[in-house]
Amino acid sequence: MTFEIGLIGRIASTLGEGLTLTLELSASAIVLSAIWAVPVVLVLMSWRRAVAVAGRAYVEIVRNTPILVQMYFIFFGLSMAGYRLSGFTAGLIALTLQNGAYIAEIYRAGIQSISPRQTEAGLAIGMTPGAVFRIVVFPQALRRVLPPLANQGVVIIKDTSLVAVLSVAELTFQARLLADRTAAVYEIFLTLALLYLVLTTAFSALMRLVEWRLRIVQ
Amino acid sequence: MLGLLAANLPLLMRGVGVTLMLTALAGIMATLCGLALAFVQLFGGRVVRIIAEICLYVVRGVPLLVLLFAMYYALPYAGIVMDPMTGGALVIGLYFAAFMAEVFRGAMLAVPQGQWEAGRSIGLRTPGILRHIVLPQAIRVASPPYINTVIMLVKGTSLVSVIGLSDVTFVGVQIVERTLAPFEIFGAVAVIYFLINFALSRCGIWLERKTGFVH
Question: Are the C-beta atoms of residues A212 and B100 closer than 8 Å to each other?
């Protein structure tokens, strides 16, 4: 078994098709998870005990079960119930439900890391609770939330590979097809791993740029 | 629904056995390699440190599924034939070793530098400082994220179902193909994983209390 650099060029077009789908899925999953986490964190931090407990139950269930099982549950379960979903949609729902729970915890930690004294101070000078959150808490929490959010984004990008088992023709699925058809396994999997590495590195770099732009200059 | 679950429970339990076995093998490997990597990063020479850094970077940026597929497809071409259990445990163990290394390294760095200096000033050498001063404190810091990583590892073992190892996820898929009852069966599989992880997080709380200091 030898390694041929030339083969990478020939498998590139097939992998390129998969790459488009992986990018699409990653971007939508990251955005949707970050949005879905907002109502989740509101529920988690609710004053009403029953509501908070329900939110906690959702987060614990989702975080303690594999995303693969969740994907199967949604994909086969909903199609059995008469709602035919594409593998892409089912995967996107599972990715959003799972990572939304993780991101909600990140948001919660970020908000709670801002000292309650600041909220009290804001209320004491006559600001409305909404204004306190908008002007005092949110700008500080946002900056603390960004680094763990970047990590979760990397997790999402890596987890998009799992939709390959639902026959979505993304990067990993295409690589597996190529590996079945050709014998150039070294070239294929090396390229595949490199592509993911580039994706995750680029995303981390992008998030660090955002962090840098939002830094507080003193 | 209960009849369906009762009829398939023995099969699922056999899958649970495989999942637990895989978790134990991969977990032990991840812990040992993670410790080794953390020590290399903290105390190793420059060259080994850079090599360890590169390995960690690669593993953290590539999906576990890709590594499993690479093992499954590429190793036979290199003349290495492994049964799925060994191969799966090896890949999962090494993959999570990277995350464990971060946990252990972070915990060691969380112990203030002053403790090292204090140890030195009373005449202890590095091994003595580690054993009597730094490690007991580091273990306490490390135990919550350590258990989190083990839970990630348990969830990660579900991926071996894709390379044909009959763990509980694989068994679930097979039962669904036969019974066409995805909600019940995948629900049961999810409950099984939840119970395993719940037990683990209880262990974590116990471990934290056990390694904690009484104030």
Answer: no
